[in-house]
Design goal:
Elements: H1 2-5, H2 26-35, H3 38-42, H4 45-58, E1 63-65, H5 72-76, E2 81-84, E3 88-91, H6 104-110, H7 112-124, E4 130-136, H8 138-147, H9 155-163, H10 165-189, E5 193-198, H11 206-227, E6 233-237, H12 244-251, E7 255-257, H13 264-270, E8 276-281, H14 283-288, H15 290-303, E9 309-313, H16 323-335
Parallel strand pairs: 1-4, 4-5, 5-6, 6-7, 7-8, 8-9
Antiparallel strand pairs: 2-3
Helix pairs in contact: 2-4, 4-7, 8-9, 8-10, 9-10, 10-11, 11-12, 15-16
The structure holds coproporphyrinogen I.
């Protein structure tokens, strides 16, 4: 997996699955219940380590991804974050005047338990299993901070960015700096590669995309590499569409995560052939299984057979996914 991240093509693509630890696994649901709250699970190294390793016990995956969430950063900055069952995350929405009340100075201390989880994982994993650290990219994290919850069109955050450019720039500065420190600490604790989850890179015109997505992602890539030279980084600008090539070129990520709505031919023609791509099966095809899943998985593998490719979904696995379909998919990627 790490070889592929670094641009060296393998005979079969390595494979991991976005959100591979989670509610589709009964053993996850059991630990989740024991932990009480979701954030307690993220901040308890023993339990977070356990749920990170669960999918690797079941499946022949090439990588583990740290179990945590993109919203530990707002939580670390002092914004109240809650996870209600069946509701997703709920935050106290951030007003323009409240940006200055965020507390970057407390973030490092607050996130220490997550770094302890990374250390335990590196010690527990064999050398041939890549350990992926991550954080949310600033724009995506800001959409939750400003709206107080997920939203289909990110209206509140998009409006805030255009209406309050100074407060927005200040918020991006805080998120960029906090994310750089956090990712550098993850590398120092043993992460082999990190992924920047820009899950809401959609619905933006090209100027907004440049300011809100490319700029902050690039600053993080540069900031991390200033302290960890050549640090391997995966970018995942979900919904970037026609902005994808520009994102790859200007941010300098090693790997570009491709969402499932992006046509394979477009990836082949728009992105440089030496750039590693990751993706991009529709998670719904993994729910349905059979030929619906297998024929498309084969198409993806064939389309990227001439470049470095990490097989993955084009977004996170969903709770209703049958475990047998995950087993079959991984077998198909590894053995045809
Ligand atoms: O009760 C539960 O168990 C909550 C479900 C859950 C889980 C398992 C949430 C709440 N977060 C997570 C873990 C998580 N989140 C990981 C773990 C590592 C892994 O196995 O992959 C990662 C990488 C994330 C990242 C994350 N959180 C993203 C980016 C990826 C993506 O899917 O777009 C986002 C947008 C979040 C916010 C979030 N946290 C949880 C939920 C349900 C959501 C999405 C809310 C929404 O739809 O807006």
């Amino acid at each position: 997996m790490l070889e592929t991240v670094l641009g060296r093509k393998q005979t079969r693509p390595p494979v991991w699955i976005m959100r591979q630890a989670g509610r589709y696994l009964p053993e996850y649901r059991e630990v989740r219940q024991k932990a009480g709250g979701f954030l307690e699970l993220c901040y308890t190294p023993e339990l977070a380590t356990e749920v990170t390793l669960q999918p690797l016990r079941r499946f022949d995956l090439d990588a583990a991804i740290l179990f945590s969430d993109i919203l530990v950063i707002p939580d670390a900055l002092g914004q109240k974050v809650r996870f209600e069952v069946g509701e997703g995350p709920l935050l106290e929405p951030l007003e323009a005047s409240a940006v200055e009340r965020l507390e970057p100075a407390r973030a490092g201390e607050h996130l220490k338990p997550v770094l302890e989880t990374v250390r335990r994982l590196r010690a527990a994993l064999p050398a041939n299993k890549t350990l992926i650290g991550f954080c949310g990219a600033p724009w995506t994290v800001a959409t939750y901070m400003l709206n107080g919850r997920g939203s289909p069109d990110q209206w509140v955050a998009r409006r805030f960015a255009l209406e309050h450019p100074e407060a927005f720039a200040r918020l991006m500065d805080i998120l960029v700096e906090t994310s750089i420190d956090y990712l550098v600490a993850q590398f120092e604790a043993g992460a082999d590669v990190v992924q920047l989850f820009e899950s809401w890179a959609l619905n933006l015109d090209e100027d907004a995309f440049a300011t809100q997505v490319i700029g902050p992602n690039k600053r993080i890539v540069d900031g991390v590499r200033a302290r960890i030279p050549n640090a391997p980084i995966i970018g995942f600008p979900r919904g970037a569409a026609g902005n994808l090539a520009r994102f790859a070129r200007e941010t300098g990520v090693n790997v570009l995560g491709i969402d499932y709505a992006t046509p394979l031919d477009f990836v082949r023609s728009a992105l440089p052939p030496e750039l590693t791509v990751q993706g991009n099966l529709d998670p719904l095809r993994l729910v349905i299984g059979g030929e619906v899943m297998e024929s498309r998985a084969r198409e993806i593998i064939a389309a990227f057979s001439d470049r470095p490719h990490i097989f993955n979904l084009g977004h996170g696995i969903v709770p209703e996914t049958p475990i047998a379909h995950v087993e079959r998919l991984i077998d198909l990627v590894k053995n045809g």
